[in-house]
UniProtKB/TrEMBL annotation:
It comes from the Bacteria. Keywords: ATP-binding, Cytoplasm, DNA damage, DNA excision, DNA repair, DNA-binding, Excision nuclease, Metal-binding, Nucleotide-binding, Repeat, SOS response, Zinc, Zinc-finger. The keyword Nucleotide-binding applies. It is found in: Cytoplasm. GO terms for biological process: nucleotide-excision repair; SOS response. This is UvrABC system protein A. InterPro entries: ABC_transporter-like_ATP-bd, ABC_transporter-like_CS, P-loop_NTPase, UvrA, UvrA_DNA-bd.
Length: 855
């Protein structure tokens, strides 16, 4: 073999002595990986574990999945590749044995409100087909029942009274098609209109002083115009004083301001000078409605939506479908009624349909019914039995969205795929883990390789192969510490994971909880979504764990009722909160801080340094150097959001987005700046041999040491380390952070501020993405907050956090319609003693009562 050919083989990862049943990786040096080499068995369930930032995701997603994707794209035609652009090869010397790869990550499945659980899994497609095949309609004239199939290819009329009946195809049962959507609400199920109660604020004020909420205080803003023209001209035309309070203006004039002047035209001066222009006043309501519907920006639409009320469509009653579609029934149920069922209810319904479908149409419906049943069963198997088929995709959590996609993959008959999953156990109660494990094993048994980044012990127990990466995060990680069976990991003395699995190390759940105080925060009558007039108590200056199976009502109670209510009372917010009767005990609190898992930004411009406020301080240091002063470089030059200093080609993003019409968009490194974001002259300015791009490329550990002489910068970076994020880079794109990492960045931001008063912190599953060792560190932070007099309310499934809590509110008993109640609230012993509590049972199984109940 020629030297040139051998080099080509090595560079492209082609193994001339290929091991058919193995994925072979040699010399992986991407990010913090230290020349990693390993072999992974194909068609097995493989778990990658290790502390946060150790390099698990880099190896799984940035090496294995990325290289598989790159090779797929390389196989496209030259023409197709032109629209894709150049995809960078991961920093790895050699890979063989790769199969096509599909990543199922914890990211939003869709931002489109028309996307639902049913559409994502194609269950809705099969339901529409079923209703068009065997659905029964009722003639509006004589009430005769008509089988849809009977008139499809015959006369479109009632066989009894001969009234014309519109033939219905599958498309007529979709709210996303012109044929099927309700013509009044355009298939949304709700109608929006400007709400004068939200639009008009203090009626004792004039418009200039802020009577119209949309305008705000025009006097402070130094404005006297709105989108339709100068205000003073409108007032002058009707001989009214612009300083008049809104409530004292004539009703007829208020209507002109709100709805426009109709055919009456006013004389406006031309923008270009000279002649005047005659035109009517458009009106605030008219203009606001137009802007709401015409904008393509979701952010802008939300801004306008705050002045609107959303009401159930009076025509379709919220079903989104046309009158004709809602007239068709199977088993006395319309397709809208079936779509609003939970997965568990829909399974019972489809079973009943299967058993009672007439023999005359059984053959043409059997395959459809079985396909629907199979897909519903897969959703049930991944612990999503409580979701309804019409649940909007944007409202799904990251974990729910991931499991919906996982269920959809189970429905396919594809084999020979490498599935890559990021913490599929996220959001699952310990009770439901067994079903998830069974699902992963089904994927494997179909002839696929399933690679999972995971920390859950239950999933590790069922893995065929485990890879432990570490030993720690960032530059202290990136090595294979142990690999093999569960026993091999447990017996490896170098493995931090092994020490926790073998119980040599344990998560320290000793927590400061002020159990002597009898001060509680109490919410009464909460009835949002599936909540059943819930009353719940939360002990102050204590770690309160809110537990329960998926869909039991935890988020409805905390994130959507208690949190916005406390924000109104303590933070002077203006959230709309209706589903409760009373709240008590908040007088002992000063503010509420919600530490959510929402991204800290949605573009490569957002990063941890800008979010926590340390980047501005760093920029000031660079702007104060001798070089910067000599070259007249102000503070603005050291921001990649400023035209003055950023790279003009990528506009400071360091990457350029390539739109791929058949795959997700891909970001590639900017050729001009090499991903460094700044102009060359800006990068010549250095501090101790490092420029601004070098600093952004440092992790928090390195940067903390680099800026040790700058106290205000050093202290903030120390807090990042304290919350276990010493490994993340200051300039790391926010889009690459997991939900758990984003949550801890937010926590670091709050901890770096000077504490004022007593705060209630609200967390939604803060242990997402955390290794046993990371959970220990998180509990140290919690302990510190409690000792400072604060209160913590944490939605959580992690048993170590639950055991550390001084007060537990356990919800259930099941999810969806079978949940929404407080099963038990009190101490850990109270929860364990409750016969109805699944949480209590899970805790019981982990350790003996003697170890749990501390005096």
């Amino acid at each position: 073999m020629s030297t040139k050919l051998r080099e080509l083989i090595i560079n492209e990862g082609i193994n001339e002595e290929s091991e058919d049943n193995m994925i072979v990786i040699k010399g992986a040096k991407h990010h913090n990986l230290k020349n990693v080499s390993l072999k992974l068995p194909k068609n097995k369930l493989i778990v990658f574990t290790g502390v946060s930032g150790s390099g698990k995701s880099t190896l799984v997603f940035d090496i294995i999945h990325a290289e598989a994707q790159r090779r797929f794209i390389k196989g496209l035609s030259t023409f197709a590749k032109r629209s894709v652009g150049k995809i960078e090869k991961p920093k790895v010397e050699y890979i063989s044995g790769l199969t096509p790869s599909l990543a199922i990550e914890q990211k939003s499945v869709s931002s489109n409100p028309r996307s639902t659980v049913g559409t994502l899994t194609e269950i809705s497609d099969y339901l529409r087909l079923l209703y068009s095949r065997i659905g029964i309609r009722t003639c509006e004239n004589c009430k005769t029942e008509i089988k849809t199939l009977l008139y499809k290819n015959k006369k479109s009329e009632c066989p009894n009274c001969h009234t014309f009946i519109k033939p219905l195809m599958s498309a007529h049962f979709s709210s996303n098609t012109p044929q099927g959507m309700c013509p009044h609400c355009k298939g949304l199920g709700v109608t929006q209109k400007v709400d004068l109660k939200l639009l008009i604020g203090d009626e004792s004020l004039s418009i200039l002083d802020g009577a119209i909420n949309w305008f705000g205080n025009l006097r402070e803003n130094n404005k006297t115009t709105w989108p339709t023209g100068p205000l003073d001209i409108v007032f002058d035309h009707y001989n009214l004083d612009i300083e008049t309070p809104w409530r004292d203006l004539p009703k007829s004039f208020q209507d002109v301001i709100l709805y426009g002047s109709g055919e009456e035209k006013l004389e406006y001066p031309s923008i270009m000078g000279g002649k005047t222009t005659l035109k009517p006043v458009k009106g605030i309501v008219t203009e606001l409605t137009r802007l709401y519907y015409e904008t393509d920006s979701e952010v802008t639409r939300k801004k306008y939506a705050q002045f609107m009320s959303f009401n159930t469509c009076s025509v379709c009653k919220g079903t989104k479908l046309s009158k004709e579609a809602n007239s068709v029934r199977i088993g006395k149920r319309t397709i809208s009624e079936v779509s609003s069922m939970s997965v568990r209810e829909a399974i019972s319904f489809i079973k009943d349909v299967y058993e009672h479908v007439p023999n005359s149409i059984f053959k043409m419906s059997e395959e459809i019914i079985l396909e629907i049943y199979k897909r519903l069963s897969f959703l049930n198997d991944v612990g999503l039995h409580y979701l309804s088929l019409n649940r909007s995709a944007p409202t799904l959590s990251g974990g729910e969205g991931q499991r919906v996609r996982l269920a959809a993959q189970l429905s396919s008959e594809i084999t020979g795929i490498t599935y890559v999953l990021d913490e599929p156990s996220t959001g699952l109660h310990p009770r439901d883990l067994e079903k998830l494990v069974s699902t992963l094993l089904k994927l494997r048994d179909k002839g696929n390789t399933v690679i999972v980044v995971e920390h859950d012990e239950e999933i590790m127990k069922h893995a065929d192969y485990i890879v432990d990466i570490g030993p720690y995060a960032g530059i202290l990680g990136g090595e294979i510490i142990a690999q093999g069976s569960l026993a091999a990991i447990k017996n490896n003395s170098n493995s931090l994971t092994g020490k926790y699995l073998s119980k040599t190390l344990k998560v320290n759940d000793t927590m400061y909880n002020n159990l002597e105080n009898n001060r509680f925060l109490t919410i009464k009558g909460a009835d949002l979504n599936n909540l059943r007039s819930v009353t719940a108590n939360f002990r102050l200056n204590t770690l309160n764990a809110v537990t329960g199976v998926s869909g039991s009502g935890k988020s409805s109670l905390i994130s959507r009722t208690l949190k916005p209510l406390l924000e109104n009372l303590l933070n002077k917010a203006d959230n709309k909160v209706e589903h409760y009767s009373e709240i008590l005990g908040y007088e002992d609190l000063d503010k509420v801080i919600n530490v959510s898992q929402e991204p800290i930004g949605r573009t490569p411009r957002s990063n941890p340094a800008t979010y926590i406020g340390v980047f501005d301080k760093i920029r000031k240091v660079f702007a104060n150097t001798k070089y910067a002063k000599e070259h007249h470089m102000s503070f603005d030059y050291f921001s990649f959001n400023s035209v003055k200093g950023r790279c003009p080609y990528c506009e400071g993003q360091g990457q350029i987005k390539i739109e791929m019409h058949f795959l997700p968009d891909v970001w590639i490194e900017c050729d001009e700046c090499g991903g460094r974001r700044f102009k060359e002259e800006v990068l010549k300015n250095e501090i101790n041999g490092k420029n601004i791009a070098d600093v952004l490329d440092m992790d928090a550990n390195e940067a903390s040491e680099f800026f040790k002489d700058y106290k205000d910068i050093h202290l903030i970076l120390e807090v990042l380390k304290e919350v276990g994020l010493g490994y993340i880079k200051l300039g790391q794109s926010a889009t690459t952070l997991s939900g758990g990492e984003a949550q801890r960045v937010k926590l670091a931001k709050e901890l770096s501020r000077k504490a004022k008063g007593k705060t209630v912190y609200i967390f939604d599953e803060p242990t997402n993405g955390l290794h046993f060792h990371d959970v220990s560190q998180l509990l140290v932070i919690f302990d510190k907050l409690l000792r400072s007099g604060h209160t913590l309310i944490v939605i959580e499934h992690n048993l170590d956090v639950i055991k550390a809590a001084g007060w537990i509110v356990d919800m259930g008993p099941e999810g969806g319609k079978d949940g929404g109640k407080v099963i038990v609230e009190g101490t850990l012993k109270d929860v364990i003693d409750s016969k109805e509590s699944f949480t209590g049972r899970a805790v019981k199984q982990t350790e003996s009562m003697k170890n749990l109940i501390r005096c």
